[in-house]
């Protein structure tokens, strides 16, 4: 079960994830409850700096009752200026 903090991070990353997944797999869907945060890495050494990468694996599927069709892993760059996608792995 995800913690509230885990779920909040998935929700904040979701708009960028949705763009990537819809572009790569136009007919597939995914569910946030099934997403997995693989890594969170602080890019700067100081704790007053807010510069991170976050790697998340999303299982994609087509139709409401079909099995997963394969994951897509997205690495995000997260700063106080916003979220951007830096890497897509299929």
Descriptive key words:
90 residues; alpha+beta; 5-stranded antiparallel sheet; 1 helix; 5 strands; 23% helix
Account of the protein in words:
It is a single chain. The chain is of the alpha+beta class and 90 residues long. 23% of the residues lie in helices and 42% in strands. The protein has one helix spanning 4-24; strands at residues 29-30, 36-42, 51-61, 70-79, 82-89. Strands 1, 2, 3, 4 and 5 form a five-stranded antiparallel sheet that branches. A hairpin with an 8-residue loop joins strand 2 (36-42) and strand 3 (51-61). The chain is elongated. It starts with a helix and ends with a strand. The mean pLDDT is 92.
What's the β-strand tally? Answer: 5
Structural class of the secondary structure composition? alpha+beta
Strand content: 35-45%
Task: Determine the fraction of residues in helical runs and give it as a percent range.
Answer: 10-25%
Radius of gyration: 14 Å
- How would you characterize the largest beta sheet? 5 strands, antiparallel
Order of helices and strands: HEEEEE
The average pLDDT value, as a whole number, equals 92
Shape: elongated
Continuous helix count: 1
Amino- and carboxy-terminal Cα gap:
25 Å
Unreliable stretches? none
């Amino acid at each position: 079960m995800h913690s509230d903090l885990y779920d909040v991070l998935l929700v904040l990353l979701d708009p960028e994830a949705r763009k990537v997944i819809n572009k790569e797999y136009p007919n597939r869907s995914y569910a946030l409850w099934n997403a997995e945060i693989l890594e969170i890495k602080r890019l700067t050494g100081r704790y007053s700096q807010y510069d991170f990468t976050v790697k998340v694996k999303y299982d994609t599927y087509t139709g409401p009752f079909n099995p997963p069709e394969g994951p897509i892993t997205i690495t995000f760059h997260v700063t106080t200026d916003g979220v951007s996608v830096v890497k897509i792995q299929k």
